[in-house]
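FW: tagging you since you asked about this chain on Friday. Here's the raw sequence from the shared folder, copied in full. Didn't touch anything.
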Amino acid sequence: MSKVCIVGAHNTKFGSFVQRNKETGEITDVLSLYELLVEAARGAVGDSGIDPKEIDGIWIGSFAPAMFTNQDHLGPLALEAFPEAFRFKPTKRVEGACASGSMAIFDAIYAIESGRFRNILVVGVEKMNLLKTLGVTHTLAGASHWPSEGAEGMTFPALFAEYAKGYRDHYKLGDDEFRRILATCAAQMYANGLENPLAHFGKGGPSDKLGLVTAEAILGLPEDRNPIVADPLRLHDCSLVSDGAAAVVLSSADAARSRKGPAVEISGIGHSTERLAIKDRANMHELIAAKRAVAEAFKEAGVTSKDLDAVEVHDCFTINQVLCTEALGLSADGQAGKDYLAGRFGPRDRCPVNLSGGLKAKGHPVGATGVSMHAMLYKQMTGTPIGATRAMGLPGVCATLNVGGSAATNAVSVLKRIL
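HL: got it, structure written out here
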């Protein structure tokens, strides 16, 4: 099977790009879905050095643009990045909940491997903040099992709270110890986010102003600043409702080697799906399907967890950061929380987790997240990092773990720097 390489990447700033009138409740867009998509597309193609005319197709990852913005059919919108060069190119939108971006990348990989395409642009995008909180909650609930979860008022914090309770109880963690574990994960992401100029919670943001870069600072917040959202998860255990986009240019290995510039090979991928309703799952203390996706990707790439130099994981909630760390084999089952408490996985660790700040601080525009993971690692691996950097030098082997819904869709990529 021929390999596929990332040869260019771009990440827009993530944030809440609206103005809200507190008196009327009116929400005004200040950076649209269309602008975010075009910026990411132009940025990635420019970074690749490839003539836009040489892009053979465009894949878009987006979860629910019609619900969030009233705009579906995103594929044709990508043509606006380079109207003359892109007109008549094939386009396609892919949906996989919060893993929509990775699903779009995987589809593009299959297309290049088929031999029909040499260069494909993949964009992940989501504009979430045009809706009020109830609208966002309702839209995201569409990624749950609607009859038994969304329709019953079960939100995503509540779904991942089941994982949190399952993990805590299975490994017999005390309430105080468990809360400290989760606060430590959040604080580490906030600290990394302060180094990322594109982060939703970066310098000058709430986590910076409140000094939330230690577990003690988070644990010391008054109840109204860190309320319980779904017991045992609190506000600062939850990722952000963000607007943003990211893009990568993928090329066949032959095409990548024939051009000037860096290339990062996608050496292995894994895609595994869990039953959608959590009531139908065997247990709630590990990501079983994610572990299968990890095994597939590692086998194809010929690596183990010991080979990894940096990873981007899906910390939609702090408990999922713990679970993803174990799914990747960076910690033994039941040990990741203790490893975070011991200070592991920061920029000085052998394998840092989420140098970008992760979904917790960088932000989580759901359709953009999977592409952003790949884009951020590509930048790290090619010596043009955005944000915090690995103290031990440029990473040579990295991985992404992106999940959709309540860890129903699980996507893993192994990346290797080759040029």
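FW: The two ends are 20 Å apart (CA to CA).
HL: agreed, and DSSP finds 15 helices and 13 strands in the chain.
FW: great, closing this out.
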